[in-house]
Design goal:
The complex is a heterodimer of chains A (about 110) and B (about 120).
Chain A lengths: L3 E4 L2 E4 L5 E7 L7 E6 L6 E5 L3 E2 L7 E6 L2 E6 L9 E6 L11 E5 L1
Parallel strand pairs in A: 2-10
Antiparallel strand pairs in A: 1-3, 3-8, 4-5, 4-9, 5-6, 7-8, 9-10
Chain B lengths: L2 E5 L2 E3 L5 E8 L8 E6 L5 E7 L6 E3 L7 E6 L4 E6 L8 E8 L8 E4 L3 E5 L2
Parallel strand pairs in B: 2-11
Antiparallel strand pairs in B: 1-3, 3-8, 4-5, 4-9, 5-6, 7-8, 9-10, 9-11
Classes of the chains: A mainly beta (about 110), B mainly beta (about 120).
Chain lengths: ~110, ~120
């Protein structure tokens, strides 16, 4: 199974900060990667598909990049509602695998 | 409006069985692959299983293969997860999710609210 490794596991940031989360695949997965935001007690929400396509309704401050094994989710200017846990998911093959998550907390 | 509503969770003893349902609306259900994803308390997301739109193709995580089965009734717009031989480590919130572009390996663009399964004596 492909292993997805996110870093950092957690981070503290302030409103207005630029935040970058990394996801690394144990083998090349083309651009078959999606990013999700999960607030406490809520279902995950799709932010980015195909590594860089912003989901309809997701704020434009979110962007994704990368291909092959290294991927990045960037929040250009952190807002209060962005404090949550973020997950990457590979869609290259089965079994599908998520990263372990990155918790973004208020500094 | 797309809606996914899970039901069927609850408390079950180790070794027991449970069937989860996910009622779908707001899209052409039989055209989209669907999936189950779970989240143990305080833990991350874990993909469990998915099924093609026709129901002919299914995949399972190693942790549930041979114990869980996935199915769908396209006439009722409902997805199912039959869980047998349940273990304590199956305790989790179970979400159903819809694929974005119909394919099995697609991103999940809509999720249900989740149903809690607790396996304990």
């Amino acid at each position: 199974a492909i292993q997805m490794t996110q870093s950092p596991v957690s981070l503290s940031a302030s409103i207005g900060d630029r935040v970058t989360i990394t996801c690394r695949a144990s083998q090349g997965i083309r651009n078959d990667l999606s990013w999700y935001q999960q607030r406490p007690g809520k279902a995950p929400k799709l932010l980015i598909s195909d590594a860089s396509s912003l989901q309809s309704g997701a704020p434009s401050r979110f962007s994704g990049s990368g291909s092959g094994t290294d991927f990045t989710l960037t929040i250009s200017s952190l807002q209060a509602e962005d404090f949550a846990t973020y997950y990457c998911l590979q869609g290259y093959n089965h079994p599908r695998t998520f990263g372990q998550g990155t918790k973004v907390e208020i500094k | 409006e797309v809606q996914l509503v899970e039901s069927g969770g609850g408390l079950v003893q180790p070794g027991g069985s449970l069937r989860l349902s996910c009622a779908a609306s707001g899209f052409t259900f039989n055209m989209y692959a669907m999936a189950w994803v779970r989240q143990a308390p305080g833990k991350g997301l874990e993909w469990v299983s998915d099924i093609s739109g026709s129901g002919e193709t299914t995949y399972f995580a190693d942790s549930v293969r041979g114990r869980f089965s996935i199915s769908r009734d396209n006439s009722r717009n409902t997805l199912y997860l039959q869980m047998n031989s349940l273990r304590a480590e199956d305790t989790a919130v179970y979400y159903c999710a819809k694929t974005k572009f119909q394919l099995l390996l697609d991103a999940f663009d809509f999720w249900g609210q989740g149903t809690m399964v607790t396996v304990s004596s």
